[in-house]
């Protein structure tokens, strides 16, 4: 699971208000290279929840992102953004609901967001 | 199995329906009006009452059954048919003697025809984020992401499918655009209004609660966004009919058990649900004739040497599925 996806996932347990973002508990993180595409990245900047990305990257061991979104989109900034957003993969771990503590497992890079009967 | 009745108003079973919908007002266009539609809300609520009567534990059992079915059979399907797990779209009365690549083209045509039907091709720039509900191994997602340069997330109940879908995306250098998760279409893990295009290609059949399914599709669709549903339906019921004929129900039940299809409804049921959620520009069409050549082709591929060997290797669920395929043909034929 890459952070571009984590930035979209919410906890869908009934009644939960604080659904996003899910906290990441990383057990195994791998890095996979992806082609650098500045246009795509600039387009994504407008849609990304920045704090969720920064916190998610930290949980996966990457601390290079600035806390605040920079107004000038320098090359070096875009490279860091690219790396955090697309090249860090959570292979094994959990996504944790901040409100209930419920853990959604991530196995072989695939998050499992299925709810139990009593959560619906 | 012989039909004991052949009323002229009996259309066909099952019907393959396409619905294209936008939010929010109420213009309904029916491409092929059925004779005698049941348009009362009673029909729609009947459909949903019937399906929600199932105990929740059986819903979990169904979910597990679907997941296991696709865990077990996806590999085999992909080996023989490639990465699209839906019907091909053919010209009616076309010769069934197509090559394998002809059928694969037909599956891609199905995607294109669906997009075209929904008027999406003219609005390519507006499609930025797509959700593929019941994504299989991601054929539609990768195709649509490539076509529109859009971000696409797919959800499936099968962990095997999700992993395979991600691997295929990586192999096609689409990892930055498409990704796949295990999630329930009835409880999508996304915020409201997230997607410009909500895509459900032949997955609606697996949903035990059609009302909930449609509600979720609408919830995650962005205002002004588009929902495209391609699904198997039974024929619309005639005036005064409360349910399908017993022989029809019997045929459906046999198909359903094998493929984990919990309940069927008609196109009208879907249209009513969508109307009740205030969707605009609702269109539907019956593509039964355009997909009928598909199952004989699937059976033929299964009967080749490669097909038989693969079936035997892949386990009981695949074999049961293969044995049920002639029932699908029966279903389409009964229409005439």
Automatic annotation (TrEMBL), chain A:
InterPro entries: Trm112, Trm112-like. PANTHER family: MULTIFUNCTIONAL METHYLTRANSFERASE SUBUNIT TRM112 HOMOLOG B (PTHR12773:SF3), UPF0315 PROTEIN-RELATED (PTHR12773). Interacts with TRM9. Belongs to the TRM112 family. SUPFAM superfamilies: Trm112p-like. GO terms for biological process: rRNA (guanine-N7)-methylation; tRNA methylation. Pfam families: Trm112p. It comes from Raphanus sativus (Radish). This is Multifunctional methyltransferase subunit TRM112 homolog B-like. GO terms for molecular function: protein heterodimerization activity.
TrEMBL record, chain B:
Gene3D superfamilies: Vaccinia Virus protein VP39. Residues 193-201 are annotated as: SAM motif II. Residues 131-229 form the Methyltransferase type domain. Residues 220-229 are annotated as: SAM motif III. GO terms for biological process: methylation. Keywords: Methyltransferase, S-adenosyl-L-methionine, Transferase. PROSITE patterns: SAM_GTMT (PS51581). It comes from Raphanus sativus. One of its GO terms (molecular function) is S-adenosylmethionine-dependent methyltransferase activity. Residues 130-139 are annotated as: SAM motif I. Belongs to the class I-like SAM-binding methyltransferase superfamily. gTMT family. This is Tocopherol O-methyltransferase, chloroplastic isoform X3.
């Amino acid at each position: 699971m890459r952070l571009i996806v984590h930035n979209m996932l919410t906890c869908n347990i009934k009644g939960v208000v604080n659904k996003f973002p899910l906290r990441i508990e990383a057990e195994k993180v791998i890095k996979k290279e992806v082609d650098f595409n500045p246009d795509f990245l600039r387009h994504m900047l407008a849609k990304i929840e920045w704090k969720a990305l920064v916190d998610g990257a930290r949980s996966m061991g990457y601390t290079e992102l600035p806390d605040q979104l920079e107004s000038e989109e320098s090359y070096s900034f875009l490279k860091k953004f690219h790396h955090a957003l697309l090249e860090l993969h959570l292979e094994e771990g959990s996504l944790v609901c901040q409100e209930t503590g419920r853990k959604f497992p991530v196995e072989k890079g695939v998050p499992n967001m299925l709810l139990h009967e009593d959560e619906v | 199995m012989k039909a004991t009745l052949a009323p002229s108003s009996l259309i066909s079973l099952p019907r393959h329906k396409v619905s294209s919908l936008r939010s929010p007002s109420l213009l309904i266009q029916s491409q092929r009006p059925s004779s005698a539609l049941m348009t009362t809300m009673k029909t729609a609520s009947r459909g949903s009452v019937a399906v929600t009567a199932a105990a929740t534990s059986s819903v979990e059992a169904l979910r597990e059954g679907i997941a296991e079915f696709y865990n077990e059979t996806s590999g085999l399907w992909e080996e023989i048919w490639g990465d699209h797990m839906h019907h091909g779209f053919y010209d009616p009365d076309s010769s069934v003697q197509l090559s394998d690549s002809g059928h694969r083209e037909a599956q891609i045509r199905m995607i294109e025809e669906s997009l075209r039907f929904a008027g999406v091709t003219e609005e390519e720039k507006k499609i930025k984020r797509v959700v593929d509900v019941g994504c299989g191994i991601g054929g539609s997602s990768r195709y649509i992401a490539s076509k529109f340069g859009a971000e696409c997330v797919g959800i499936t109940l099968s962990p095997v499918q999700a992993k395979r879908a991600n691997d295929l995306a990586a192999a096609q250098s689409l990892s930055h655009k498409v990704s796949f998760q295990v999630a329930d279409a009835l409880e999508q893990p996304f915020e409201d209004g997230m997607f410009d295009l909500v895509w459900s290609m032949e997955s609606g059949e697996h949903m035990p609660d059609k009302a909930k399914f449609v509600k979720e599709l609408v919830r995650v669709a962005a205002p002004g966004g588009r929902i495209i549903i391609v699904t198997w339906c039974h024929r619309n019921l005639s005036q005064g009919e409360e349910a399908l004929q017993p022989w029809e129900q019997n045929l459906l039940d046999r198909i359903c058990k094998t493929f984990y299809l919990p309940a069927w409804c008609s196109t009208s049921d879907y249209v009513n649900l969508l109307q009740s959620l205030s969707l605009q520009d609702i269109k539907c069409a019956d593509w039964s004739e355009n997909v009928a050549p598909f199952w004989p082709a699937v059976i033929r591929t299964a009967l080749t040497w490669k097909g038989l060997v693969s079936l035997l290797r892949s386990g009981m669920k695949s074999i049961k599925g293969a044995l049920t395929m002639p029932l699908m043909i029966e279903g389409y034929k009964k229409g005439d």
